[in-house]
């Protein structure tokens, strides 16, 4: 099992922040396929997962082949909670890996 960290811009600087906890090698490969930012695996530290990943927007009707975008809530900056697009092309079958292992708030929604 691994924990994943993502290298994203926080307050103008690229910073490593926790992304997902307790993922398998297969799940790491899945995340790497769709992620837009650099990732690194670290040995599983038993991190506590986020109790809430934020809203997951869904289309009005079922679209089983529709791909999903993943947005990450970055650390708070100047009383604001910025969000950034971190992954594209996530299939509905892959959504649980992102949602169930999240350490930070994520929003999973159809692309605009």
Write the layout of secondary structure elements.
Blueprint: E1 2-10, E2 13-23, H1 25-34, E3 38-43, E4 68-73, E5 83-90, H2 95-100, E6 106-109
Antiparallel strand pairs: 1-2, 1-3, 4-5, 4-6
Describe the structure.
With 112 residues, the chain is mainly beta. Residues 50-62 have low confidence and may be disordered. It has one domain. Helices cover 14% and strands 39% of the residues. The radius of gyration is 14 Å and the shape is globular. It contains two helices and six strands. The strands form two sheets. Strands 2-1-3 form a three-stranded antiparallel β-sheet. The chain has helices spanning 25-34, 95-100, and strands spanning 2-10, 13-23, 38-43, 68-73, 83-90, 106-109.
Give a quick rundown of the structure.
With 112 residues, the protein is mainly β. It has one domain (2-109). The chain has two helices and six strands.
Radius of gyration: 14 Å
Number of helical stretches of at least 4 residues? 2
Distance between the termini: 34 Å
Poorly predicted regions are: 50-62
C-alpha geometry: globular
SSE topology string: EEHEEEHE
Order of the strands making up the biggest sheet: 2-1-3
Q: Helical amount among residues, as a percent range?
A: 10-25%
Structural class computed from helices and strand pairing: mainly beta
What is the residue-mean pLDDT, rounded to a whole number? Answer: 83
Task: Label this structure with key terms.
112 residues, 2 helices, mainly beta, 3-stranded antiparallel beta sheet, 14% helix
């Amino acid at each position: 099992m691994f924990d994943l960290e993502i290298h994203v811009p926080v307050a103008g600087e690229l910073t490593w922040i926790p992304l997902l906890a307790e993922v398998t090698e297969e799940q790491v490969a899945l995340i790497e396929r769709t992620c837009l930012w650099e990732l690194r695996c670290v040995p599983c530290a038993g991190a506590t997962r986020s109790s809430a990943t934020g809203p997951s927007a869904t289309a009005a009707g079922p679209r089983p082949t529709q791909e999903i975008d993943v947005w990450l809530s970055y650390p708070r900056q100047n009383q604001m909670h910025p969000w950034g697009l971190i992954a594209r092309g996530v299939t509905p079958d892959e959504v649980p890996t992102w949602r169930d292992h999240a350490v930070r708030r994520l929003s999973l929604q159809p692309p605009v």
